[in-house]
Each structure stands twice: as structure tokens, then as C-alpha cells.
Amino acid sequence: MIYPVVLYGSPVLRKISKEVDKSYDGLNTLINDMFETMYKADGIGLAGPQIGKSVRLFVIDAEPMKDEDPALENFKKAFVNPVIISESGEDSLINEGCLSIPKIREDVIRKQSIHIQYYDESWNYHVEKYEGIKARIIQHEYDHLQGVLFTDKISPLSRKLLKGKLSDISRGKIEVDYKVLIPFKKKQD
Predict the structure, then answer these.
(1) Cβ distance 47 to 5 under 8 Å?
(2) What domain count does the chain have?
């Protein structure tokens, strides 16, 4: 099932997500649906809040970026109840975008390295270290679970300059090639 992607302005994108427990009904189906939704929207990551579900879950498949970084080949994972234990290394400035904020890209500073603990879709526990683009993708998706968007991490001036575009997105004044859920669309008379 392909879910609509929740656009900027929706309250679910600002909530801290709730943990998933082993009895969560249909978890594997949800994970598969999230991958399908992400692929349909040409994304490389998708978090629960982006499909209107305030759950601590995100999926990543960075294979499309393997030409930029060969380490991204076969980097496909589901992260259930992730916790970033630490971020370290140099600050890195890289341009980011988001399916919930279409057609806007901005430079975002993030740490180069992270330690994260999480469960996979089979409830196997992992503690792993990621660096470079892998760490950045994980940090971006993890932020969604914390109610944080990449636009929160840009300069105040850049945010001010984007205010009109962000307002347009929240009202559905944007064209994309995937299903979306518009938070503040005016009803037609």
C-alpha cells in the first residue's frame, strides 16, 4: 500500500514519536508499505510521521546514491525504536531535501559520525556506528521521530527567505509526482 506523504505544516511532523512494541499489529506490513511509499516518491528515507504515523520507525534505502558513495550500495534497513547514543566528528555541511518539504533544498550542518541503537524488523537488537552520508541520512530520518525538520537546522535568514514557499507547501500549492496529504488545504465551495 502506498501512503500519502504528509506535507510541511501537519502537526504529526512536530510530535515526538511513540515507541513501537513487539505486539504492534502489522509492523512488517507497515515497513514494506513504507519502502513502497518511499520508492514511489523517489526518496532514500522515510519516517513514520511522514505517513501520518507517530511511531519510532524509519526506513532507508540509499542504493540510488551509490554512484556518489559506493558504501551506500545495499544500504537498505528498517530502524525500529532507534536511539542515537552519540554524534561525533567534524561538522559537515551538505545540501538536504525532504519528501515532506518538496522542491526545497538547503545546506544543513550535521556531525560526521553517529552511534545508534535500534531493532530491525525481526526484533534483532543492534548497536552500530555510521559515518559520512549513511550517518547523515540516519540523522535526518531520526530527526523526524523527534519532531524536527531539516528546515529547523538552517540559518534564520534562510528560514525567513523560505517562509512563503513553506506556506505554499502547507496549503498544497505545490506539484509533486507522489500522493500527498495537505495539512491546510482550503475546501472548495
Answers:
(1) no
(2) 1
